[in-house]
Every structure is written in C-alpha cells, then in structure tokens.
Fold each of these.
Amino acid sequence: MSKNSLGLAQSAASERETSLPATNAPHAAQHSVFPALPAELNTGLHLIDFEHQVLLNSMATLRQVCHDFSTRQDCSGCDVSSRNQCEGNLVSLLGDLLAFIMDHFQSEEKMMRDSLLVLVNRDLCDAHMEDHAAISSTVQQIVAALDPMQTPSLIRELDALLHRWVNNHIGLHDMWLARWIEREDSILRTAAKFAG
C-alpha cells in the first residue's frame, strides 16, 4: 500500500467516510501508524482525532523537507539538485495538504450540520468555518508563492500556520464541536445508539 507525503495510506480514506461520534465510529487508532495525540488535542471523536494525527504527521514531514529551514534565509547556499529536491518535496506535501484540508474541513462542517449545531449556534459555526477558510487561504498563498530559492522561508511560514492550527483552532473550535456532539442529548449520539 502506498503512502502520500502526509504518510496517509490509501485505506485511511475510509476512516474519513464516517462522521459518527466516538460512541459508534471505527477506532482509527487501530488502523493508524501515527503516535497517539497529546491529551490536550484529543477530542474523543475518532474521525477528527485520526485526522489530527495526520496533521501532526504532516508537520513532522514538513520539517524534514529542508535540513536547515529554521536558520536558512534562502536556498542560495544549496546546489541546484538539492533545491529541486526540496522544492519538489514541498510541492508534493502542499498538494497532499490541500487535499487533506478540504476533506478534514468538510468532515467537521458536516458534523456541524448533522449534529444541528449550525441551527443552535450559527455564530459559533460561522467562526469555525471562517477559521477553516483562513487556514485554506494561507496554504493557497504559500502555494502561489512557491519559488525554488525561497523554500526555507515557505517551510517556516507553513510550519507556523500548522502550529497555530494545532494550538488554537483545535483547542477552540474542534473541542467545542466535540463537546456538542458528545453531550447526552446529541442527535448524532442518539443516532449511534439506534444504529448499533
């Protein structure tokens, strides 16, 4: 089975197809080659937690694109072959990351609709979706700025964005969504009981 640059095996796509809460979703960790999420990032929703593991893996992969991205201003000290390899790896990662982002954000937004959160607290959902749009837009800006001489600065910019996603977005938006879905009278939680 082949893996893309995010380290996501093709069969993992099936993990994204279910949007039921942890009470009925398949246990993604059984299928995962990724390390466990830190406790502060664990939403309790297997689908979302699995996708956050993919995000953490992509962050680790990103840091391996250039061996000296944190101190290098640009690629002027690298030979052409190294520059091309780094840029190719970054382009591949960005392509996979854009596809992942679209799938992940669609999963979360579907949960908002399916759980009726969007009807109960539209402002909260709008803020969550606006954050999704801002993250996607920033990744697209990085793609538009691709330049084989600027790979280290683009890696730093993407790394900072992914860190903000992990440190801010998950804790603020995703945890709120998880609490909504996991509450006792949740429509998704009730549906999971009847399905099982």
Amino acid sequence: MNRNPHTDLERWLAAEAAGDDLAAEEAFGAVFAALPRLAPPPGFTERVIMAFDREPDTGRATWLWKAALAAAVALAGLTAGLLPLVRWIPIRLPSVGDVFAAAARGLAWLEQWLRTALDIWGMLARIGGAIGAAAQTPEIATAMMGSALVSAAALYSLHHLLVYERRV
C-alpha cells in the first residue's frame, strides 16, 4: 500500500474524472485506509457499560408513581362497573341533542371570536402598510435615522455616566 495519501487522493480524483468506477473505488478505499484510526480512551467502554448496568432507582418517587397508577386503574374499573347504575340517579343528564346544541353554540362563539381577531389583524396590517409606505419616503427615513443616532448617542452617554458613577 502506498504511504503517501496525496498520491492516493490524486489517483482517486483522476479515476473519478476519467469515469473509471472500479479504479475510483479502489483509490477511494486506499485514501481512507491511509487515515489513522481513532479509538476511544482506555476504559471508555467499561464506563459506558457500568452506566447502563445500574439498577433503576427504587426510591419513594417510583413507588408513588406505581401507587398512583394502580389507584387510577382501580378507580377507572370501579367507574366502568358502576356506569349502568347512572340511569337510576335522580338528576337530569343532558340528552344527545342538548350536547350537540351546546357544541354548536360553542362553535358559533369561536367563529365570532376568530372573526373579531381577524378584523383586528387586518386593521394592524393596514396601519403597518401605512407606516411602511411613509418610511419609504426620504424625509421620513432621514428623520428615523437621525432619531436612531440621537438615541444611540444618549445610550452611549448614559452608559459612560453610569461607569463613571461606579468608579467615584
């Protein structure tokens, strides 16, 4: 094998330019065979395996999660078991029509809210367009640039006054 990687690189590029795929693949392999192999530091593999072999923490938090999950499953099972008794409860449950009517009223309210929000957005877009049209004129652009320079000078002066005050 050739020890000079530049020769292998030139051979690969020449083979690619010539369109010789077999020679290009061989030269490409030689280029990467000449590169040094990188290895992890000693003991890296053992540290990684030790980190993953640890037993999960069986502390109080894990026990509480398991207890909460068991209580939720038991409550869901109890509720599902008592569901047929709901029809004997003396309170009035809403009918399917009442549920659909409430959903329709909610959708109508949402539609009105979105229409109002879009109207406000349209008004803000018109205001922004007017400001943008005004800012494109040379007079307004010059005034805005002057205002920005005055505010930058004021900030610079304020910063230096504060630094001076801290030193005194």
Amino acid sequence: MNTVINATLNPLVGILRRSGLLTRDLDYHAVRASMVIIFLFFGYQKWFEYEAQVLIPYISNGPLIWWMYPVFGIRGASWFLGVAEWTFGALLFAGFWDKRLGILGAAGSVVTFIMTVTIIPFMPDGWAASAGGFPAMTGNIPFLMKDVVLLAASIYLLKQDVARIGQRSDEAAAVPTAAGERKFAGGVARSTGLPTF
C-alpha cells in the first residue's frame, strides 16, 4: 500500500516543489491577501439598506454586539461595522509593509470574528430538528460557521506578525562579535542570525 501511495505522491510532490507553491511566506501572504479581500467585500455591503436588514437576526442575537442597535440604530450599526471592517482590512493590507499595522489589523480581525462566532449558540432555530438537531445546521448558522475559519486565519496572522516584529527586535539587539558571530542575550548565533539556547 505504501508503494502505491509513494508512487502516486512522489511525482505530485516534485511538481509542487518546482511550481513555486512552496515559496517562502506564500501561505502567509495568501492568508493576508484573502483577509483583505474579505474585509473589503463585506465592508462594502454594510453601506446598503439590504445588508442592514440582513444583519438584524445576527446583531439582535449576538451576545457581544447586541448593544449596537440601541446605540446606533439599524443603519448606523451597519455603517459602524462597515467602517470597522474597512479599517481592519486597510490595516491588514498595510501589514504587507509594516508588521505593526498588520498586528493592529489582525487583532481587530480576531475581535471581529470572536464577536460573530459567539452568535452561533444564541441564534434561534440554528439546528435542524428534523435531522436530530445539533450538529445539523440550518438557517443562519451555516453562514456563521465560516467565521470559525476566519478567526483561525486572523489568529495565524496575528501570531506571524508578532513573531516577525519580535525577530526584528532580536536582530536589532544583536551585538557583533568576532568572525561574523552575533551575540544575543540567549547565546551566540552564527550565520542563521537566530539566538541559541
């Protein structure tokens, strides 16, 4: 069985390696670009009456966002979300060049999707009784389930940007020593530029 799997996968792996798909940071940039597009498109919708009406069951049943209607009204809540989504999308986009702005965008994205994911348990009629209830999704729940993945993507971007800022700080704190070595608080790293522990 392993021979058949290897015979099938080895050529595919070779093609993928040569294709550039495994280029350093491709996944990181693809996730960032997709999140920018998501925020651009979803933020655009928020400026129109049809979307303000579509949001009513979500905002009304959201334990973390219910307050928007008393504060902003139906259209105002939609506009507020549009501004927030475009702001986070712009910060994520700026994160291609400045990781500090990327951190702000990713943090805002994490908060956004925590707010939407927490709606899932409170959405009425979200589980199909005819199919035995949970986990058979119905109504608005399937739309919200995508936010679980978007929350994971947001956490990934936040982690990556924080790590890259930390790595830059470590490299800036390095003190040159003999023979091209760099001294770090945790030890000496040779050509990799990373501290050894």
Amino acid sequence: MVLTAIHYYVVSYSITIKFKTMGFSNEQRGGGGKFINFRKGKLVNGGNEFLHFTGTLVDIGVDEGEYEGETYKRITLYMVDQDAKTQPLYHVQAAMNSGYMVAFMSMLPNIDHTKPFEISPGMRKSEDKKKEFATLFINQGGNHIKWYFKSSNEDKKKKFPEPKIVPVGNLKVKDYTDRENYFEKMIVDFLNKKLRKLFPDGHKSFKAAAGTAETTGTTSGKGNESAPPEMDDDLPF
C-alpha cells in the first residue's frame, strides 16, 4: 500500500497519526474475522485494536444485539476493503444509541455513498470533565465530514427527535424510541435511494472476511458481543 497523506487529530487529548489507506490502520489487515466492534474509542477486530478502518459502504442493517441478558437495537455497517485481493466484507457493529452510531447517523446525509471513507472512533470529555462520551469521525477524500444533524440547529429538519422522559418504577429514564424509528426510516431511505442502485444485492454480493474469530459471537449468531455496547444516555451535541 502507498502512504498518501498524514493527518493529525486530537482524540482524548492524545495525538493520533492516521494514514489514508484502505483497510485497517497502520497498513494492517486485521485477520480477526468479519466483525469490527467499538471499545473505548478504538476499533476491535479479533481482539486486536485499531485506530481506524477505511472501506466502501455497501449495505446497512438493523437488528437486535444482546449483552448480559439485555437486548438493544444495533446498526451494522457492511464495508468492503477494496484494496485487498479478496475484497473482504466487514460487519462494523455498534448499538444504535451509542455515541458512535448517533455520530454516524448525524453525518450520513453528508457522506458520498459512491466513494470509500475512513471511520475513526474516539472519546471526548463532557464540559465538566467528569464524563467521557463515545463519538465517531469520518474522513472522505481528505475532508472531515461535518454533522448534518445537530441539537443546536434551528431548522427542525436538521434535528433528531428528542428523547422522552418516562417513569420506570421509582426512576425516570430517557426513552429514545422516536429517535430509533427516525434512524430506521433514514436507513431505509438511504438504501432505497442510493446504495441499492450501486449494490442491488447489498452485502450478499461480497464474501465475509475470514479469520480465527469468525465463529465468536452470541448464540443467536447476530454478532460479536465480546464487549458491552457502550450506550450513551446523554450525548453532548
């Protein structure tokens, strides 16, 4: 692979050197199977951590994951490493309400679906420095993709539905059902209007990446649940 550019980002107060190549960071190829998960601001494939992954988005899926007996909605980004000889397909998975996927959905309208892009997870601190929140950065063609949806936008069409506060026993919790439904509609529209025109059969046209971790996951076979989904009940955006 050819090193084409170097970019520097400040993520969790550390300098990260990022290489614009397809596949995993530092010109590595993973080798840990098809699942790519997120853990504390890093990508994880077969137990190995990576700073970023670059690929072409060919499909998006929504299903349910399970962790420690609790179910949650999950988004899977099906991305192909087109630089590799076999063009392996990877399943980039995270909880729908995690900071990673909320950030992805916030940028989705600004992503060019016809070109590869780089995903780089990170952690950022709250204003009082007491909490950390998961987030995601996307670079495409040497440009940082900006958020289309923000809670600070005056235009309601550029804001996600606000969570409802509902009583559960003696507690009051945030209900993100409206936002989840909004995300699912966004994904269906994105698939029908854009991705399906390029990849009519979606991820089924590609062979999943192989590796020693291929068989790991839940008994339902829906994904690799070796790490908690990193839900964020309060996102600073």
